[in-house]
Amino acid sequence: LDTARQELEEFIPHVKNISDSSVKKMAGRDLMRFKEFKKQGIAVKFGRFSQKENKQIRKNVEEFLALTGIDSAEKLLFTSRYPEDKDTIHRLKTEHHFCEKISEGIPRPWRLIYYRARKMFDPNNYKGRYTTEEKEKLKTYHALHGNDWKKISELMCRSNLSVAMKFSEIKSAINYGPWTKEETQKLMNAVKEVMRRKLQAENPSSLSSLEQSDTDAWIDREKLCQQLPWTEIETKVGSRYWRQCKQKWNSILTSKLTKGQELYRGTNGLQAKINLIKRLYETKAEDANEVNWDELSNAIGDVPRTYVQSKFYRLKVSSVPLWKRKTFSEIVDYLYEKKLPELEEKL
């Protein structure tokens, strides 16, 4: 187990925080795959799945169905919904090495690929807006079963993720209007509290000197841009659901980190656009999800990824004709070939 953990750490730095049982599974399902990808010079990926990866998952699932004769992706990935076929499906999955086949060609942990496949192929995931009746049912089921989203999803014929997110949205009186000063302050206090706790957990001694300071500058900019426990923050704010809190925080963060900077004015602004277009062109990415936006933000200044993404959005909307009909790579090519010379001439 210790050896497996050490070997996996090369590919997954946070493996020390993963349970022993999960490490054992990863050692069997992932370690050899990761080593093969390393030989090919391919790094293990996390974060959002790209269009290319989604296509590969779809291909892997379709090929496995053709190989085994299982007649639907739902039966393959949600076997518990078909108790009469369960034993046969499990036998076929074992005989034909389901784990290896489903993850073929995708440099990610098997578990993440499996969850992504389930999300893509769950027919309960694409049922449109909730009716008033469904919302009332959801409240009733939650009162009976608590946060047992698997049970509730079966009762409502919606996916686990869908019912959990919808309940988060409707469980209290949600304000959809402009944020008040009081709400904004509650949000900032909630973020500060969870960030302080996170920092203390990572480095218990780090707060001793910070407690004596009246400033909030102790939080690294990089950490501010990382994933936060939004459902917990939602509870602390009280009047907004988690997605609203996340969007508002991103706008506050962007505003604060760029306040007072002259990054996008005059010649600095032209240079920033030029750098952004060049760096995007150099990535040779086919899809926006393949771009490392955090790394790219360094190309134009010490700003969060959301700021770089919004800058790219404004560039394509204002400069690329019929951009909605173009692929990501076509948009970048156009900016590089047509807009870049124009910007360089202005500079």
TrEMBL record:
Superkingdom, taxonomy of origin: Eukaryota
Domain Myb-like: 171-253
Record Pfam families: Myb_DNA-bind_6
One Gene Ontology molecular-function label: chromatin binding
GO biological process: termination of RNA polymerase I transcription
An annotated GO cellular component: nucleolus
PANTHER family: TRANSCRIPTION TERMINATION FACTOR 1 (PTHR46760:SF1)
Name used for this protein in its record: TTF1 factor
Species this chain originates from: Vireo altiloquus
